[in-house]
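Recap from last week: sequence in, structure out.
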Amino acid sequence: MSGQDSKKNFFEDKKRMQNYAYDKYKDLIRQSIALQNSEDWEGTTAKLKQLQNQWKDIDSSLPRKVTSKLWTDFRKAHNHFFERLKVKINNEKNASREQFYETNYEKKKQLVDEANTLLDTNNLNDAVRRAKELQAEWKKVGPVNPAVSDQVWERFIKACDRIFETSSLEHFIRKRQQANNERLSEQDGLHARINALKDFIKSDKSELEVLEQNLDKLSDSPSNDTFRNMLQGKIRNFKRKINTKQEMIEGLKEKLGAYSNNA
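Predicted structure tokens:
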């Protein structure tokens, strides 16, 4: 065989190899495109992985520009499928999380409803004991949707506050009666409770003022973030408890008004 024939055979072999590689690449691309809209998520993931391995195993002497274009078409089909898979997984996670949130929200609403009826359905000691149990149960319930988290918590803690504030008030009135050896009439008892709550509010406001002054003096340094959050939490609690006492005063005044109307 002459040198010219050898050279001709070499180029023919090379051409055949390139054609084989090109056809193999195109076949893998066709298979990938056929799978890109599949909803057999697990099976298709495995098939596409196999196609990727087959692509790597092709021995190609094609020009870089050609292989680059083929690779782009191949990856486009794969990316299309895996982006769809990613969306599906995220949707399932979101649906699962929303269901989790909703279940927890229903549990917390039940705790709110019970806390709101404790003073009407129990004696004061039992109401206080059960309110503490409800607070422990609340901590065991998982998170709810952030959009309703603060709202449902405020309703719950406000109901509990009313029980504890009522307990503190009755304890104060009982101690005062024992100290003074007195028995108050119904109306005098209402007046005594209103005046006691006013004194409690005055004390709360004094402490609240100190907390707000401390917060104002605190620098914006990140090192103060923990202390700042603690102060802000205490301020919120005092404001809420002051509001609870004010509502209790309004309720007692309504009872007094009923006495006046019946007189």
